Amino acid sequence: xxxxKDLAQLHSSALKMxxxxxxxxxxxPEGKALRRFSSWEVAELIFKINQSTFRGRMSAEPDLPGGxxxxxxxxxxxxxxxxxxxxxxxxxxxxxxxxxxxxGKRAVRVALCNYEGGAGKSTVALHxxxxxxxxxxxxxxxxxxxxxTVSRAFGQCEVTEDYTPLGILARDLIRETDRMALxxxxxxxxxxxxxxxxxxxxxxxxxxxxxxxxxxxxxxxxANTPNAAFGEFASAKFRRWxxxxxxxxxxxxxxxxxxxxxxxxxxxxxxxxxxxxxMNAVFAADMxxxxxxxxxxxxxxxxxxxxxxxxALRGLKDGFxxxxxxxxxxxxxxxxxxxxxxxxxxxxxxxxxxxxGAYAExxxxxxxxxxxxxxxxxxKSGPIQPSIYEMDYRDLTRDVWRAARSSFDSAYTDFRADxxxxxxxx
Length: 426
Ligand SMILES: Nc1ncnc2c1ncn2[C@@H]1O[C@H](COP(=O)(O)OP(=O)(O)O)[C@@H](O)[C@H]1O
Ligand SMILES: [Mg+2]
Fold this sequence. Notes:
Elements: H1 4-26, E1 37-38, H2 39-47, H3 51-60, E2 68-69, E3 76-78, H4 80-89, E4 91-92, E5 95-96, E6 108-112, H5 121-134, E7 139-143, H6 149-153, H7 165-183, H8 195-198, E8 212-213, E9 219-222, H9 231-241, H10 250-256, E10 265-269, H11 276-284, E11 287-292, H12 296-319, E12 337-342, H13 350-363, H14 376-379, H15 398-425
Parallel strand pairs: 6-10, 6-11, 7-9, 7-10, 11-12
Antiparallel strand pairs: 1-3, 2-3, 4-5, 8-9
Bound molecules: adenosine-5'-diphosphate and magnesium ion.
């Protein structure tokens, strides 16, 4: 017979090995810098101008950052910070290269969510964030999933639970309970939180404590850790401690305190479940993006996801009767946009084509035009591998890289159009 003491023994043996394995398999080497981008990429793939125009502008303005010539050839290679500076300073046909961004508005918030594990949510989150950064946008990724795929892909391997979205929930519980205690009348007394949460000091953490820079100069992250996998239990306890706490709005409140101009895009990568973490991402989101795989069982799980989410949102509207504290928030939750996107799509696979037809028939305009195609460059990659945008094409068959990149680029083009139209509506 085995009981928790035997499990404790196994756990302690596994822990000894864990750090060693994590260091060797999961994480990009610490401090590894983002690669440079060649003048060909900067001109044609990033600024979308031809190379000779780019070279012309560069020689006309010698004080622009000039990148570095690498030993293997004639191309110049630029860091992303240099690319960003070029974008700010260079004009082509008197046109700015800066991407459109309405003045005075906050960042557009997107939740990437679905039931299915393995749909490609994290891969999509990672690539959309990086495509947006290459396009000149400033991005905050919020990794809501303790599986931490996106965190690890950004080199965040040693994350303390306090500084994860679970920490944001804990901090919010304390602060909201304090606020209620000041506001409330005698008839509705506010519960006192137990010392085990009250004394953690979480209430005093500052917003920037949760936000970490990445090797992408214009992408920051609120990271997650597998150690926060008990989060659903913890947050259920939080709700018992203060039943009037609007548990689903913690992330919204957190994001509301960011400076409007700090980011252009906030992307939340959700776990494959509808729990407190996903509901926080969903409630914070202007736009829902539902990545879905091209097989029948994946369609099935997307269908179930919509059903469960409907129930959860209806439940919030009907079941949460405490007043929402902030004038900016209201129930029922409304989205400016809801989109479905096919991922891991193989255009040569007849079954995939049929499923795509079915998705198009059901979701119509809600289905994004360009699916993310299945590519062996991603398939091979666990979190230790670089993304398509991070791979150095000189190490690969150029056509394979171009095909994979152009699929993610097209998906980003659809996404960008959605972001711009959402910006008009918020
Ligand atoms: N476009 C793609 N082409 C090939 N493999 C993919 C693609 N997108 C995701 N995958 C693979 O599918 C698996 C699940 O992807 P992931 O993004 O982690 O899904 P989720 O976040 O939905 O669980 C991973 O092994 C990933 O490498
Ligand atoms: Mg994931």
